[in-house]
Amino acid sequence: MEVAKVIIDQNSHHTDRPFDYKIPGELREAVKVGSRVQVTFGKGHKKMEGYVLGVKDIEKPRYTIKNLQGVVQNVPPLSELQIDMILWMKKTYLCTYMEAISAVAPPKAYGNIKEKKDVYVRRKISSEKLESQLEKTPNNAKRQREILQYFLEEEELLLKSLPGIKSLYKNAVNALEKKGILEVIEKEKASKLLSMKSPSNPPRVPLTTEQKKALETMKEGFQQTQQNGVKGKTYLLHGVTGSGKTELYLGLIEKALEMGKTAIVLVPEISLTPQTMERFTARFGEAIALIHSSLTLKERYHEWEKIQQGKAKIVIGARSAIFANLENLGMIVVDEEHEYTYKSEQNPKYHAIEIAKYRSEKEGAQVILGSATPSVESYYRGEKGIYELISLDRRVTKHQLPQVEMVDMREELDVGNLSMISGSLKSQIEENLKNRGQTILFLNRRGFSTFLSCKKCGYVEKCQDCDITMTYHLPSDELICHYCGKKKKPITECPDCGSTTIKHFGYGTQKLEKNIENLFPQARILRMDVDTTTEKGAHEKVLNAFKNREADILIGTQMISKGLDFPGVTLVGIIAADSILNLPDFRASERTFQLLTQVAGRAGRGEDLGSVVLQTYKPEHYSIEEAIKQDYVGFYKREIGLREAFEYPPFTALYLVNLMGEDEDKVYNTAIKISKGIRYILKNEGHSDCLEECILGPNPSVITKINKNYRYRILLKNINIDKQLLKKVLKYVCINKRKQFVPDEVNLSIDFNPYSII
Ligand SMILES: Nc1ncnc2c1ncn2[C@@H]1O[C@H](COP(=O)(O)OP(=O)(O)OP(=O)(O)O)[C@@H](O)[C@H]1O
Ligand SMILES: [Zn+2]
Ligand SMILES: [Zn+2]
């Protein structure tokens, strides 16, 4: 008898195993490994869906087995490669089957979406004939007359754009259709996707010597891989800002297509700008599928369908595009490889580069990791020869990297300048406005002021549900929690001491905008942050306006820090360079250096030389010193020494166990039980000497509460312990013994190589 092993589509660790279902004779043809199927589940015979991960033949079962109910139509079965990846992810990230399937499979709505069409009304006769029709139409056929009026000038109109599309009007339109005057037609809804043009073959820029050499090396590597059928190589392309990395990606993809292969290009969500897309579509046209989070379900469906049907040869997208089910995958490009958005914050907490490397090994694809500021781990691998390191040290344009001027804001205070803009930055903006150059001002904090506090007793307004201060926003005049989004009216009286001396502290982009408006009333200013880009397409609008020089100054958060290529920008001002330096996180220095170098890199990309003003309270910090020099390798050398000394990645692997729940005692007790369990087993394995260094915590997380949930964490480091052993113990305690250790009210998740440990 044929039995299917089915994973039930329900995200609970209680049902996280394959269940057996008999494949009835009539379904034998339809059910395949990977099919999405209908089943009944549990004592209540609840109707559910699930995925077949395997089929086996058994003699006589010792227990009763339910029948499979059917196969879900229009959902393509998971491929063999996808199933392999699901099993590998489950093992690697200790997630549930369903979590792995949800990450790998196309969106669930795939195949369930009805094609929505737009209904149009079109005139079938000439406008002269229509005019005489109108004369013939009696006055009491009011609606028909009204509709005909419209078509005197128009040939085709959307039905819903006619006045009050009530059934009465529809009747009138139907009557006119019967008379042969109008016709009703349905058209596929116009897609809001960036329109995919056919390749326009723009003139190719001749590559610089440096670019050529890099491209040749990577092409040769690719050719070898393809000919010898060995597993794909990983290249780390370290090229300074504006060194023309994208041009190399295009060349490599072209090579892959020539050899009958396909390609995936990952870009951070925020760089999915029309600017980037244009460069790809100009070269490859309709062979591209685009995947990112602001697509509607229908748009997403279309893009996945293109991939599924083999129409797409190149997939460009944010993190999840790494799972694109392309056949003959030959090339994976990860642009801005250091970007933290490549790490998933949901289970499975994978990093897109980890998946890229898995696919590279399985499918023989070549991986290109590109960045001006590679992650410390990637560069370390480059140095060790695990990746092949390729460097582009020069910009393609005539000017080299911009000069960075450092302003010590403590000295500004000394001379009585209390504002957020130093004397030097102010005069340079003035000068730049005069010369009609564009300016970018970067401040990595949105809102108006950072927090409200009582001057008398020091009370600070915090979110009730999260352990963080609330940010004051204009023009809505409200406090917003940047973690859970809750809003409230600002206090005018201190709830602790009753004083009315409530003061604003800190500043964000809204306040910066106000200040700049006051200082330079003649300047045209744009602001780009989460608050100005909530609407679909708003992001592009701002960037396009700036590109078309409709504004002189662009103010923004990290949204404007990378990938943008505006030749008109000759001045970049960094308002508070040390804003994230104080985060209690081992990556704070790295992130600071990356952010500053990327922002600085937006200046001087055109005809004119660029300059950068960097304001800081900590000029002596090495991240800032090296960012001023824009010297990646200099930064890397200092950072890698510290990572080794303090036993952080890449020298140790970090495993983070997060525990969360509304009942703080329960969360804490669970954390204690788990850490005790881990310690106990490791002790029995003979590791009593290193437990202190290896298992840190449980401790409350840095942000102790988010959205009413208390957070505790246990951090594991593999110091003097085999990584695999540590992982095995973790799996045993957190997964196998979960029922025993973790009550249902406490959420446990495991993060391997966490991006941040806040
Ligand atoms: N060989 C070349 N000659 C002239 N212009 C070039 C050449 N190569 C690239 N460019 C242009 O230079 C600009 C910068 O290139 P690109 O955006 O690829 O740099 P990048 O290395 O990705 O920069 P960043 O990391 O700062 O985003 C683009 O406008 C690109 O069209
Ligand atoms: Zn007070
Ligand atoms: Zn909150």
UniProtKB/TrEMBL annotation:
A cellular component annotation (GO) from this entry: primosome complex
Chain residues that bind Zn(2+) 2: 463, 466, 481, 484
Domain Helicase ATP-binding residue range list: 226-392
Co-factor requirement: Zn(2+)
Cofactor annotation remark: Binds 2 zinc ions per subunit.
CDD domains per the UniProt record, alphabetical: DEXHc_priA, SF2_C_priA
Molecular function in Gene Ontology: 3'-5' DNA helicase activity; ATP binding; DNA binding; hydrolase activity; zinc ion binding
Organism superkingdom: Bacteria
Cross-referenced Pfam families: DEAD (PF00270), Helicase_C (PF00271), PriA_3primeBD (PF17764), PriA_C (PF18074), Zn_ribbon_PriA (PF18319)
PROSITE patterns, alphabetized: HELICASE_ATP_BIND_1, HELICASE_CTER
NCBIfam families cross-referenced by the UniProt entry: priA, PRK05580.1-3
Record family assignment: Belongs to the helicase family. PriA subfamily.
Xref: PANTHER family: PRIMOSOMAL PROTEIN N
Record protein name field: Replication restart protein PriA
Gene: priA
